[in-house]
């Protein structure tokens, strides 16, 4: 069964409070999401394998560690996931970026793929799917399905805020996927918003309404 990690680091929690605050404007919201994404990327990459390399410091020759050639891919779910990408790339500039776009079918209310573009070596890469909000879980499940259909084998999911319902749905559909969360909130309301949440992540990131 995939693990669920809730990051309780004080910096993440502090910044998340301002992300939630309705008084926080678009510019600051975007910057804070970017910073929290970097902090979460730092925590979520603890298990990257290392290898020894020989180097020379100004003092002597020594053996030191570098990340062992792991190929990573970041996959934002359009559109709000885009707000988390740069924060990742600051720490992992060599990671490739795929995109998954989903819309909700008006009759079945199920998410349907309308755009998928992934690096072409999907089978050799570890992927982190990012979306600020894990609400009903439908988009996360479908985005992970999209990656698996194309051969991805090792997938993590990362969001800022999750609902308990969303976490359960993803765990059930994809028991192999670890989930990384900055905060696990109370519930979903009747409109599918996370409570207390932060409102509509896409609108707050891009200044739309
Ligand atoms: N998507 C959002 O942007 N916010 C929510 O609260 C739920 C889904």
What is the number of helical segments per DSSP (H or I, 4+ residues)?
6
Task: Give the % helix.
Answer: 25-40%
By secondary-structure content and strand pairing, the structural class works out as alpha/beta
Q: Characterize the largest beta sheet: strand count, sense, and whether it forms a barrel.
A: 9 strands, mixed
**Based on the structure, what is the oligomeric state of the protein chains?**
single chain
Mean pLDDT: 96
Report the strand count.
13
GO molecular function, one term: magnesium ion binding
Protein name: Uracil phosphoribosyltransferase
EC number: 2.4.2.9
Family: Belongs to the UPRTase family.
Structure description:
- The protein has helices at residues 10-20, 26-44, 85-91, 138-149, 164-173, 201-206; strands at residues 4-6, 50-56, 61-67, 72-78, 96-97, 99-104, 111-117, 126-130, 133-134, 154-162, 178-184, 187-188, 194-195.
- The strands form 3 sheets. Strands 1, 4, 5, 6, 7, 8, 9, 10 and 11 form a 9-stranded mixed sheet that branches.
- It is 31% helix and 32% strand.
- With 209 residues, the protein is an alpha/beta fold.
Describe how the helices and strands are arranged:
Elements: E1 4-6, H1 10-20, H2 26-44, E2 50-56, E3 61-67, E4 72-78, H3 85-91, E5 96-97, E6 99-104, E7 111-117, E8 126-130, E9 133-134, H4 138-149, E10 154-162, H5 164-173, E11 178-184, E12 187-188, E13 194-195, H6 201-206
Parallel strand pairs: 1-11, 4-5, 4-6, 4-8, 8-10, 9-10, 10-11
Antiparallel strand pairs: 2-3, 6-7, 12-13
Helix pairs in contact: 1-2, 2-3
The structure holds uracil.
Residues 80, 133, 135, 192-194, 197, 200-202 line the site of uracil.
């Amino acid at each position: 069964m995939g693990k669920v990690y809730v990051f309780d680091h004080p910096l993440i929690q502090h910044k998340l409070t301002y992300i939630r605050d309705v008084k926080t404007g678009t510019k600051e919201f975007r910057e804070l999401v970017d910073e929290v994404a970097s902090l979460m990327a730092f925590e979520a990459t603890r298990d990257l394998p290392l290898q020894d390399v020989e180097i020379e410091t100004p003092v002597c020759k020594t053996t030191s560690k570098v990340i062992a050639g792991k190929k990573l891919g970041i996959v934002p779910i359009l559109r709000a996931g885009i707000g988390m990408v740069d924060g990742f790339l600051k720490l992992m500039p060599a990671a490739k970026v795929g995109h998954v776009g989903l819309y909700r079918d008006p009759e079945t209310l199920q998410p349907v793929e309308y755009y998928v573009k992934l690096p072409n070596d999907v089978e050799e890469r570890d992927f982190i799917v990012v979306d600020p909000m894990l609400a009903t879980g439908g988009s996360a499940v479908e985005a992970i399905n999209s990656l698996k259909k194309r051969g991805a084998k090792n997938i993590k999911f990362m969001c800022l805020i999750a609902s308990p319902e969303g976490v359960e749905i993803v765990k059930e559909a994809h028991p192999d996927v670890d989930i990384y969360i900055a905060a696990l909130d109370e519930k979903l309301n009747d409109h599918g918003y996370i409570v207390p949440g932060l409102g509509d992540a896409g609108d707050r990131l891009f200044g739309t309404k």
